[in-house]
Amino acid sequence: MTETTANTPQLGQFGVWRHAGGLQPEVGAAIEKAGYGAIWIGGSPPADLEVAERLLDATSTITVATGITNIWTAPAEEVAESFHRLEKRHAGRFLLGIGVGHPEQPGLNYSKPYSSLVSYLDVLDEAGVPADRRVLAALGPKVLELSAARSAGAHPYLTTPQHTREARELLGTGPILAPEQKVVLDTDTARARPIGRAAVDNPYLHLRNYVSNLERLGYTHEQIADGGSDDLIDALVAHGDTEYIAGRLREHLDAGADHVAIQVLPAGDDPVPALRELAAALGI
After folding, report:
1. In contact, 67 and 157? CB cutoff 8 Å
2. Omega before 266 within 30 of 0, i.e. cis
3. What is the distance between the alpha carbons of residues 265 and 238, in angstroms, rounded to a whole number?
4. Of residues 280, 199, 268, the one with CA closest to residue 232
5. Residue 166 CB contacts under 8 Å (≥ 6 apart), including other chains
């Protein structure tokens, strides 16, 4: 097991997950000012990590992480060079999130994902990227175990507190567990649930790795098909007022998470007002 060390960037209990296209430097600065501990760059940012550099330049203390760098599209050697560039400019503030993505992504030579991930980590080791400065996108037991052995911990996406509890049991104490949680700040279910369903159904309910994980959690084919049942969508996307959503986020902490990466929906809206309201409800 890899114990986190003083060299592992501090995340705080709550951070913000957002696609790279919506993370302009001023948004990053506002997230830091609101009191969050980390910014997770969603999607598959290129190996140059320039989006991370811009966020680090615009902020002073917050941790910036990738959620995640895709091993098929970002060569390990280039990522390592970028890591060292960021470390030189902003020592101790960048966390490299790595993952294998999904086999349905077009144009990838997606084969032997587990062994390819191990080989990617080997290259990072050889290039001097410390294990305690990276986390793995981990859903299933095998990669969760790898995240404990070869990195600072795990960054699961599209999960529930049940998954968080099971992941913590497998990881044991020490490794970081930082799940992502989608939220819609709206008390009108008729408005909020369709927003959540749109974000979850396309593409995640059509991707093998996410569907397999939901099935491991006990969801049936009928609950996953046709846009997802209401109970599935409500489990994956918390909606309601700030106090209710804050309670839902804390469920991950109670289940063993160290940190929760909050994704505010709809994705195209300015997230800062909702994040400020949530920060107040979370006491950060």
Report:
1. yes
2. yes
3. 10
4. 199
5. none
Separation between Cα atoms, residue 182 and residue 149, nearest integer Å: 28
Structure tokens at 204: 């995640």
For every residue of 187-248, DSSP letters joined together read S-HHHHHHHHHHHHHTTGGGSHHHHHHHHHTT--HHHHSTT--HHHHHHHEEEE-HHHHHHH
Assess if residue 5 is contained within a domain.
Answer: no
- How many domains does the chain fold into? 1
Name the DSSP class of 118.
H
- CATH code (residue 39): 3.20.20.30
- 163-211: pLDDT as tens digits: 999 999 999 999 999 999 999 999 999 999 999 999 999 999 999 999 9
Nearest to 253 by CA among 223, 284, 213: 284
The structure's pTM equals: 0.96
Give the model confidence (pLDDT) of 222-263 as tens digits. Answer: 999 999 999 999 999 999 999 999 999 999 999 999 999 999
- Provide the 10 A C-beta neighbour count for residue 79: 26
Which is nearest to 137 in space by CA: 175, 173, 183, 179? 179
Residue 163 is assigned to a structural domain of this protein: yes
Q: Is residue 184 part of a domain?
A: yes
Alpha carbon distance 176, 224 (integer Å): 29
What's the rounded Cα separation, in Å, for the pair 73 and 23?
A: 20
Quote the crossing angle between the two packed helices 50-58 and 76-89, to the nearest 10°. 10
DSSP string, 162-184: HHHHHHHHHH-SSSEE--EEEEE
Domain that holds residue 242: 14-282
Residue 2, in any domain of the structure = no
Give me 134's structure tokens.
Answer: 């990276």
